[in-house]
Design goal:
By secondary structure, the chain is an alpha/beta fold. It has a single domain, classed as NAD(P)-binding Rossmann-like Domain (Rossmann fold, 3-Layer(aba) Sandwich), CATH 3.40.50. A six-stranded parallel β-sheet has the order 3-2-1-4-5-6, sandwiched between helices. Helix 5 links the parallel strand 5 and strand 6. Helix 3 runs parallel beside helix 4 and helix 4 packs parallel to helix 5.
Length: 211
């Protein structure tokens, strides 16, 4: 394996060696980049995706790079699958978790008047409810680690109105507020919470929408 980012940084306070992380939706786009960044700094990571083939492809790629990454199938829209995912993570990381990255998302482009009940349920369930529930499930693992961090991938659409993504924007706005509440309530347990709100990023998720 070549030089990692950590080996190029003189200040070892950046090291994530010995840290564990769960990244949802970690096989594509922003999630994939997050996994690689964490791995470059020495973290052990578990990823989930709805597609086993995507997981297998990425795990082989990361193994070739010398990264310590495991993965399992989970559609975070489903509550029972979220519970199974966290049980898997707890088993792999021996009851401790340092970093939870709530990244998995779905995206529907329709005028507000055209959103169906099913559309709204899917978007809110995937983009917000999963973030809330996975944070709840991760809480004892984050607390047990002694140093916990939750990073939720929001969107610029959470603070600025855009056409045809009203449900998506609302879900990300709710994610922002949840992040504030987590930071407030769990600071006493040495758990930090932050939301990152990127603008348009050309990932496979966006490409599928544009097509």
């Amino acid at each position: 394996m070549g030089e990692t980012k950590l080996s190029l940084v003189k200040d070892n306070r950046w090291s994530l060696h010995g840290m564990t992380a769960l990244v949802t939706g970690g096989t594509r786009g922003i999630g994939h980049a997050i996994v690689e960044e964490l791995a470059e700094f020495g973290a052990s990571i578990h990823v989930c995706s709805r597609n086993q083939d995507d997981i297998d492809k990425c795990l082989q790629e990361w193994k070739n790079k010398g990264f310590n990454v495991t993965g399992s199938v989970c559609d975070v829209f489903h509550r029972d699958q979220r519970q199974t995912l966290m049980e898997t993570v707890s088993s792999i990381f021996h009851g401790k978790l340092n970093i939870l990255v709530n990244n998995a998302a779905r995206y529907i482009t329709k005028n507000m008047i055209d959103h169906t009940a099913e559309d709204i349920s899917l978007i809110l369930g995937t983009n917000f409810e999963s973030c809330y529930h996975l944070s709840q499930l991760a809480y004892p693992l984050l607390k047990e680690s002694g140093y916990g961090s939750i990073v939720s991938i929001s969107s610029i659409a959470s603070v600025k109105a855009h056409n045809v993504i009203s449900a998506f924007s609302a879900a990300k706005g709710a994610m922002n507020q949840l992040t504030k509440n987590i930071a407030l309530e769990w600071a006493k347990d040495n758990i930090r919470a932050n939301a990152v709100a990127p603008g348009i990023v050309m990932t496979s998720l966006l490409e599928s929408v544009l097509l």
